[in-house]
Amino acid sequence: MKNANFRDGNRSANFRNRMIDREQYVQIVEAIEAGKYSWACFLILRFAGDNPLMYIPYRTANRLMKENQRAKKPTRENSPQFAPEE
């Protein structure tokens, strides 16, 4: 009997042929250092060429993407303030 969580064998072959570049590796390590283990798993799957939604529930994946997109968007507090010229 097949394991219910078993995925297509071609995916594991695809993973072996796929390299994670330096920037992607840094993103994964930063997520781990920040304690964002679910986000790190999401990134590993995505960078490996797999669809994270095959393994992570949609609502969880959607929440992870929203939480981590906010961190990249500039906010008013973080954006430089320009004084009007006199």
What features would you describe in this structure?
With 86 residues, the chain is mainly alpha-helical. Helices cover 51% and strands 0% of the residues. It contains 4 helices and no strands. The chain has helices spanning 9-16, 22-33, 37-47, 58-70. It is globular, with a radius of gyration of 18 Å. The termini are far apart. The mean pLDDT is 77.
Biggest sheet record? none
Please give the number of β-strands. Answer: 0
Low confidence ranges: none
Count of discrete alpha- or pi-helical segments spanning 4 or more residues: 4
Q: Spell the H/E element sequence.
A: HHHH
Give the overall shape. globular
Helix content: 40-55%
Summarize model confidence as the mean pLDDT: 77
User: What percent of residues are in strands?
Assistant: under 5%
Radius of gyration: 18 Å
* CA(first)-CA(last) distance: 78 Å
Structural class: mainly alpha
Topology (SSEs and partners):
Elements: H1 9-16, H2 22-33, H3 37-47, H4 58-70
Helix pairs in contact: 2-3
What descriptive keywords fit this protein?
86 residues; mainly alpha
Could you give a quick summary of the protein structure above?
The chain has helices at residues 9-16, 22-33, 37-47, 58-70. With 86 residues, the protein is mainly α. Helix 2 packs antiparallel against helix 3.
